[in-house]
Amino acid sequence: MKALPLTLSLVFLGLVFALTLLGCGGDSALSRTELTQKYPEKKYIQADGVALHYEQSGQGRPIVFLHGLLSSSYLWREITPALTYRNTVYSLDLMGFGLSEKPSGVEYSLDTYVGQLSVFLESLEIASPILVGHGIGGRIALTYALRHRGAVRKLILMDVLPMPLASLPVTLRLLRFPGLGELLTGDWFLKRILLDGVEDKAVITKALLQEYIAPYHDDPGARAALLKCLREFTLPTDSEQALQKRLASLEIPTLVMWGGNDEYTSLQMGRKLSDSLPQSEIAVILRSGHYIQEDRPEEVRAVIKRFINIQRKNEL
Predict the structure, then answer these.
(1) Cα-Cα end-to-end distance for the chain
(2) Measuring CA to CA, which residue among 2, 11, 304, 10 is closest to residue 158?
(3) Where are the alpha helices (DSSP H) in 106-248?
(4) What is the pLDDT of residues 185-220, one digit of tens each?
(5) pTM over 0.85
(6) Of 104, 113, 101, 103, which Cα lies nearest the Cα of 234?
(7) Contact 64, 87 (CB under 8 A)
(8) Please, what are the domains in the chain?
(9) CA torsion 260→158→65→86, rounded to 10°?
(10) pLDDT, tens digit, for every residue of 262-289?
């Protein structure tokens, strides 16, 4: 009986190996030229030598959406169309995800992502945006706001992943291990992570899963990029204590949105983050997991619309 856990572990790994037909290998990612040729109708911008894809719609006050792990601008498809009245809405594919470039020679650190966001905003002359970030996108948006005081109009932080990523749930931590991570980046395991991120499994249909997984088929370097992000996305020199002091001095209206049953980032983390920000309010999306945009898109839209329109007359 004592050998049972080891046996089960070996069976599990054997099963995953059999199901992981498309594990991460050494294939080269599509270059910026190949990406723009493959998707000629898509919008791209160069940020520090990396081609970033983005969607843009509407006209008016700028709102920029940043996705989290395993997703892309596709995450916001049910959210952004309702926000285009008097707003210009941008949905950015972070480096390594979606239709953006997935370079192997660039460090996938928080510093890199914040720098690329800065270039993106400057290149498109986006001033005083509302930044909306989910997962690591929330961490990027928050860090940008901390480093560019007065440059952000409002913040919306959704199910922000903890720092360091070493405290991630076990399913994501497994991907950080060399060798094992390469084994587990096949479709079966990635779909499992997505399914575990919602409360209502029925909302993640087979067709929807295929849409989320599509970038990992379309670009040979996508799986390696995911692993690089998980392994290199680290907090800079700030200690946790120093970070808390900086959060306490951030005078930006902030909405913290959290899934009530998020198994990846607990609601307790969300409450702690909200308590650390002086101009923050928290909205708990009940009956939802980490991907609140999939579980409760109508409620997420309504909460965002209410928050961005608070004191609208005073802002114009």
Answers:
(1) 70
(2) 304
(3) 110-123, 136-147, 170-173, 180-183, 187-196, 206-218, 222-232, 240-248
(4) 999 999 999 999 999 999 999 999 999 999 999 999
(5) yes
(6) 113
(7) no
(8) 28-309 (3.40.50.1820)
(9) 70
(10) 999 999 999 999 999 999 999 999 999 9
